[in-house]
Specification:
mainly alpha, 0% strand, elongated
Length: 87
């Protein structure tokens, strides 16, 4: 767990911390947040997949799992094509 693990996370804050905001807008308009709360939506989808995987594991092994989903890690996964590796 990092130093910010207990800090409140809001879509707009995560967009800024992850750098997603810097990918939007123009020189004249600046960098606005995205029109929809994309990080909230994507984190919900990530959580859904994690819960489904945990349920499948429990069905096979009879062992419960702890599911923890990070909004910031989700934001980074959405920005993979902006990574220096791909540029």
């Amino acid at each position: 767990m990092g130093g910010m693990s207990d800090a409140p996370a809001y879509d707009m804050n995560i967009q800024a911390i992850s750098g997603l905001i810097a990918l939007t807008g123009t020189e004249e308009t600046g960098s606005p947040r995205t029109g929809a709360p994309i990080i909230d939506y994507a984190t919900g989808m990530s959580a859904t997949m994690a819960v489904m995987a945990a349920l499948m594991q429990r069905e096979r092994t009879r062992v419960d799992a702890f599911v923890d989903v990070s909004m910031l890690e989700t934001a980074f996964s959405l920005m993979i094509l902006q990574s220096p590796i791909f540029c």
